[in-house]
Amino acid sequence: MKKYAILGICVITAVLMAGCTQTTQSGQTAGLGNHVISAANQNVTVKNYQFDPQFLTIPQGANVTWINQDSSSGAYGGSTSIQHQITSNNSAFAQSPPLNTGDKYTVQFNQTGTFPYHCAIHTYMTGTITVVARNATTTAAAM
User: Fold this and answer.
1) Which of 35, 54, 81, 125 has the most CB atoms less than 10 A away?
2) Domains held by the chain: number
3) Those residues with Cβ within 8 angstroms of residue 83's Cβ, 6 or more apart along the chain or in another chain
4) Is 35 helix (H, G, I), strand (E, B) or coil?
5) Whether the Cβ atoms of residue 60 and residue 132 lie closer than 8 Å to each other
6) What is the distance between the alpha carbons of residues 15 and 135, in angstroms, rounded to a whole number?
7) What is the C-alpha to C-alpha distance for residues 78 and 62, in angstroms, rounded to an integer?
């Protein structure tokens, strides 16, 4: 009986741990809070009125490219582009032009810090880029 109780605890623990991470479209594993730490440049997908990932951690000097993949179905078929406009909450980077479906906007982050942003058109859409010193990324990724 004790053996089955221990086995049950192990299975429950494994299931809970599996639910704590997710794999992004780039194939990287994101932890709780949807953060990604990577030495590579990153994409943020804009779709379904959301930023994915919503929270992103990158090394100093990396680029983030927002890609608008949002559209809605028309009443008679086809699709209509939904515009989004990437805007820094604290003017840390230039505002994007309105992005139609398929459009991209890239920002290089050369300073460390936390950079909250939103869509100027749909202000409830929010995200945060956290930029860490390049040597901090290597240490965090190795953990």
Assistant:
1) 125
2) 1
3) 68, 98, 99, 100, 121
4) coil
5) yes
6) 33
7) 36
Four-CA torsion 7, 11, 13, 19, nearest 10 degrees: 180
> Mapping DSSP to helix (H, G, I), strand (E, B) and coil, where does residue 29 land?
strand
Residue 131, domain CATH: 2.60.40.420
74-124 pLDDT, tens per residue? Answer: 666 667 889 999 999 999 999 999 999 999 999 999 999 999 999 999 999
Q: What are phi and psi of 141, to 5 degrees?
A: -70, -25
The β-bridge relationship of strands 63-68 and 42-47 is parallel
* pLDDT (average), residues 31-52: 77
Cα separation, 43 vs 52, in Å, equals 9
Helix, strand, or coil (residue 114) = strand
Q: Which two tokens stand for residue 27?
A: 């194939």
Name the H helices within the chain. Answer: 2-18, 134-142
DSSP 57-87: EEETT-EEEEEE--EEE-BTBSEEE--B-EE
Give the structural domain span for 135. 2-142
Residue given tokens 């860490």 in the structure block: 132
pLDDT computed for residue 84 by the predictor: 97
